[in-house]
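Sample intake sheet
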Amino acid sequence: MNRGLRYGVALAALGLLATLGYGVAQAQTEPPPIVIETLTPRAVFTDDVAMQARLKLDGEQTGVINIEDPSRIVTIRVTVQPGAQIPWHTHPGPVFVTIAQGELTYVSADDCVGRQYGTGTAFVDPGHGHVHTAYNSGSEGTVFVATFFEAPETGPITIPATGDCPIPAGS
């Protein structure tokens, strides 16, 4: 087979492979809007632990969070794609949140104020029926780690709830 013919056959073979999807980048599927990974199983402190937290938001009075049984904890990592919103909910106890990547806007149903947290910042969700939502307000994926205190021994750590605050379109 002459050189030109071999070249033509090789190009035809590459074209066929590309048509079949081999040897070329496959179309990427969109990641899920929210992914939750459990980092630690539910755990119990072996020591006697007591806990109280004070929370002072801008323009608000200081609130005291009494954590009745801080011994039951669980830690998760959450990835939120741009524009995705975590549904309105609450938790049995407080949650300590650290933003590892991106930015997250947290909205409390109490005052409808969107509080923005970026990489390297942290906040406390008081739990105990405090209804809230959060959404990725940035242009890249947001990753945060959350440690839940007063987690029940079994069952959900998030309790669905309703909030009436307006959330920007695309969230």
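Comment: Confidence is low (pLDDT under 50) at residues 3-24. Residues 1-26 form one domain.
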